[in-house]
Amino acid sequence: MNQQKYSLATTIAMIVGIVIGSGIFFKSDNVLVYTGGNIFLGVMVFIIAAFGIIFGSLSISELASRTDRAGGIIAYSEKYYSRSAACAFGWFQTFIYMPTITCVVAWVCGIYGTMLFGINSTLELQVIIGTAVITILYTLNILSYRLGGYLQNASTVIKLIPLALIALSGIILGDPLPVLEDSIRTSSSAGLGWIAAVGPIAFSFDGWIIATSIGHEIKDSKRNLPIALVISPVVILAVYILYFVGISSYLGPGDVMNMGDYHVNAAAGKLFGPMGAKIILAFVVISVTGTVNGIIIGLIRLPYSLSIRSMFPASEKYGRVSEGYDIPVSSGILTYFICLLWMAVHYITQKYNMLPNSDISEISIVINYLGFILMYMAVIKLKRQGEIKSTLRGYVVPLLATSGSLFILYGGMQNPLFFYYLIFCASVIAVSLVYYSHKQSKGR
Question: What is the pTM of this model?
């Protein structure tokens, strides 16, 4: 596989483009629901949850700077723990984590697409549009990785436009200081229920780790991937807080909660008129599409990364890079059908309200942070072995990243279905370990 595809700019665009996408647009109302409409508590959860990505990125960058082998977190698990751990990570990400995110974000394309064209929105139509988006983006990335990269760069720039316009307009016209002062004054009596807001916020921050899956395809990856992992999260946090405060102070927390996902359209219409609202929604649709594209770029390569290590069924098939395409086409096709399966599951859970104020991706995102903690422990181990000289980088940063992950995990446990989902995820991991053990025994 060609090792010199993606530049530093594309890598930063991929991280920012995946993370800043649908989450901030359709999770702001969920955050306010959990905080009881308290904007200050919402900002606090954003900042606390950001520990998981800012210090997590700094920690993972230590591992990324020491290997450029295919697989990202799979490669790190293999190098710093064991091959069986790498297999478990890879299966979880291939079959649960990344496809569930893909489906939910593609579904959001359907939500905002129907708003844009003024179509009567139904869950069925949203899912059909989401499935079409996944199909088109898979086709585009399989036919040409360059087109996928160009789309990622362009959509990242475009998606910042509606966020910046709404954030700045909301802050200027909404007069947030009195609202924030009132939120601060009442926050002490809010109880601890607001901690559950970490679930939707974890979704909004999620995706940064996906860039490591193309680490072996980034130019000078040992230098550029760590730089991208450090720069991106700071930009993301600043944009999120500005948007959240702007939209909440302009419309008012109550209206944002009542309108749900439609609050973006309402704010755009109020600020810029009907035509301006259409333009903003068009930017939002492109923004969300870019997020789906970035996830797919990483997801396509996961079965390939497992197969080149003989950790996946039919490894000889999925571990091949297709001539003329310069990507593993069979690996991509398999993950496409996994996404279709999860889209069906997502439809059922939404249709029958099986995950109130949530979706199929949130808990898997939270559980994924358990795996990140193991990566942070690997950084501490490198410090103890003398490979990392700085105490700040070797101890302080990974411990802060661990604290952020534990907070996200605790918040996710507030979901009543958390333990059921945990059992399901554990089952998939167990199957992966049984498969790997069987493969090893046959190889002896």
Answer: 0.79
